[in-house]
Amino acid sequence: MMSLELSRRIRAISPSPTLSIDTKTKALLAEGIDVVNLSVGEPDFNTPDQASLAAISAIITNFTKYTPVPGIMELRKGIVNKLRTENELAYTPEEIIVSSGAKHSLYNIFMAILNPGDEVLLPAPYWVSYPEQIRLCEGVPVVLATDESTGFKVTPEQLEQAITPKTRAFLLNSPSNPTGAVYTPEEIRAIAAVLEKHDIYVVSDEIYEQLTYGVEHYSIARFSENMKSKTLVVNGFSKTFAMTGWRVGYVAGPLPIIKAMTSFQSHTTANPASISQKAAVGALGTFDQEHVAEFQHRRDFVLGQLAELPGVICAKPEGAFYVFPNVRSWIGKTYTRANQSTIVVDSVDTLAELLLTDANISIVPGTGFGAPDNFRISYATSMEQLKKAMNRLSDFVSRLR
Ligand SMILES: Cc1ncc(COP(=O)(O)O)c(C=O)c1O
């Protein structure tokens, strides 16, 4: 029997709860159980034809070899053009690095900027991978708690108070996964005014930028040249273009950091898949605004249904494709199962488990997002599925005492 231990680094993290719930759900579906999957963070739309055709052409023309580590010039130029026209941000292609998904981009950033013990200010609820990636790089996530009372947004005062000499970076994710919160341009400017006074990197994860409902997305890098010189803008093709499986993400930022990330990437994964890069070139500029209207319609439906349920508090998300209801009042209640046995819902994790096994709805408990009173519903699925899920949820709640 092996007595050798795994590394300290790897023992400090746990697997992605969102991906493990998705795997469990898919296993139940494969068994023929009619589970409604509201756990997955991927759009139900198809990859744009332009992207698929560009990828097919890449294969046929044998564009299947190593590319430059930070991505092909054609793609980086396309990203520069996108950032200029859509975000009013001026970068050169050398200030862009393309990686195998934005998750990979974020990991490269933390590897490039964190020394052991460096603190990263992380507003909660947060996307599950941020604290784990920070820990993998031996940094320390310092959680800034937020709740429904501020629309899940950090205030400038809260940020100011949290900054210490050890603070290395601030993580901003707007629109947010899991809350759907979107900082208005004024709110971003107020946060930027605090950060301007300090030598702190800003990691700005803007992967849901196109999915906002009546609020303008504003990149913090636009605030000033000084702010831009400290900001790493993270984005990708997964959410905007329904290209989760292609694995293409990117970072725009100051040249020395981009070079450091490129050096790290050169020794780990090297270039992102050549075929996916061509697909990304094909996708640029094809975002379909109709998706926004469709998502907004679904969001409003889910919010309306949740409002009918007793004891639910739910902030109105203005972006991404998630709602994040607070169900603290359900915790401690007793659920009566179909066979009349009873079980106490002692946590949101138990709730998620019961919803999966007894109501056949797959959601993600808030625990992994740093929010143990909430759960996440992804509405990136059809109205038909959403209606089915909300009916099942309502039946489930009627069995809580
Ligand atoms: C906030 C946020 N950032 C980054 C990612 C990573 O996306 P990908 O690696 O598919 O580009 C996700 C995916 O769920 C996300 O929700």
Structure description:
The chain is of the alpha/beta class. The protein has 2 domains: 8-37 and 289-398, Aspartate Aminotransferase, domain 1; 49-283, Type I PLP-dependent aspartate aminotransferase-like (Major domain) (Aspartate Aminotransferase, domain 2, 3-Layer(aba) Sandwich), CATH 3.40.640. The protein has 14 helices and 14 strands. It has helices at 8-11, 17-30, 49-60, 73-87, 102-113, 129-136, 156-162, 185-195, 225-228, 255-267, 274-283, 290-307, 348-358, 383-398, and strands at residues 36-37, 96-99, 119-124, 140-145, 167-173, 201-205, 231-236, 249-252, 322-323, 334-336, 342-344, 361-362, 364-365, 375-378. The strands form 4 sheets. The protein has a 7-stranded mixed beta sheet with strand order 2-8-7-6-5-3-4, sandwiched between helices. It has a 3-stranded antiparallel beta sheet with strand order 9-14-13. The chain is globular, with a radius of gyration of 21 Å. The structure holds pyridoxal-5'-phosphate. Residues 41, 101-103, 127, 173, 177, 205, 207, 236, 238, 244, 249 line the site of pyridoxal-5'-phosphate.
> What is the string of helix and strand elements?
HHEHHEHEHEHEHEHEEHHHEEEHEEEH
CATH-derived topology of the largest domain = Aspartate Aminotransferase, domain 2
Number of separate helices: 14
CATH homologous superfamily descriptor of the largest domain: Type I PLP-dependent aspartate aminotransferase-like (Major domain)
